[in-house]
Amino acid sequence: MEIQALPVTMTEEQAMEIAQKKGNLLGRMLIRDQNITLKLIYLESKELIFQMTYSSSPLSLRRKLPATQKICILVEGTRCTPAFLDRELEAVSVQVADEGQLQACAFPEEKVVDAGKLLARRMVRRQSGRNVSLEIKEIHSLYRPFYVAFYGEMKEGTKVRYLPIPADGNEVRRTF
After folding, report:
1. Using only C-alpha atoms, what is the Rg of the chain?
2. What is this structure's pTM?
3. Phi, psi at residue 165, to the nearest 5°?
4. Are 47 and 142 spatial neighbours (Cβ–Cβ below 8 Å)?
5. Fewest C-beta in 10 Å: which of 42, 91, 150, 157?
6. How far is CA 14 from CA 7, 25, 26, 53, 169, in A?
7. What is the DSSP string of 66-134?
8. CA neighbor of 113 nearest in space, from 51, 54, 47, 55
9. pLDDT at residue 87 in the model
10. Distance separating alpha carbons of residues 6 and 31, to the nearest angstrom
11. Which of 59, 73, 65, 90 has the alpha carbon at shortest distance from 139?
């Protein structure tokens, strides 16, 4: 199956080093003697591009003309959490042999768009204090690669600790 995904920039050896170092003291004691299994998994995300028009509040003393601009939001498909993109992501075509490596978006498209709109409104309102109207221009589906480190034996009926490690080099930070 061919998918549009972000390129993998981390090697499996680097992911294994991160998996061995992660966790607090208690976590390290629990996984000390357990074997670590790495698996490459692609999680679906939606890249939303909005046309944003913002205007002054009706109660504002200084009236400004409405302005428009483009804003990009990436909504993660497993928890429907949005993140602002400061640059457009470059996706590449990847051939995936095993469908078990793919995890599709678990939310309907309307909920994904609403989550993106909520974040964009919150950001613009906090930064400029202006009212925002958002119109969706484009929706792109792309997959983010993750190395998932499983600690211990993977047997049916047992709880396995795991750690997702982003393999594309991008990170999500909360700044506001």
Report:
1. 20
2. 0.81
3. -125, 115
4. yes
5. 157
6. 16, 21, 23, 43, 12
7. -EEEEEEEEEETTT--EEE-SS----EEEE-S-GGGEE---S-HHHHHHHHHHHHHHHHHHHH--EEEE
8. 47
9. 81
10. 30
11. 73
Residue that is written with structure tokens 């000390």 in the block: 32
Query: For residue 43, what are its two tokens?
Result: 């999680």
- The residue count of the chain comes to 176
User: Can you read off the two tokens belonging to residue 68?
Assistant: 């428009």
82-97 b/e with 16+ CB inside 10 Å = b?
Answer: bbbeeeebebeebeee
- To which residue do tokens 């995936």 refer? 96
**Secondary structure element (H or E) that encloses residue 40, with its range:** strand 36-55
- Residue with tokens 């994904």, as numbered in its chain: 112
Q: What is the mean pLDDT of each run of 10 residues along the chain (176 residues)?
A: 90 88 66 78 93 75 74 91 86 89 92 92 73 89 92 81 85 61
Say how far apart CA 151 and CA 36 lie, in whole Å.
5
Tell me how far apart the alpha carbons of residues 50 and 139 are, in angstroms, rounded to a whole number. Answer: 9
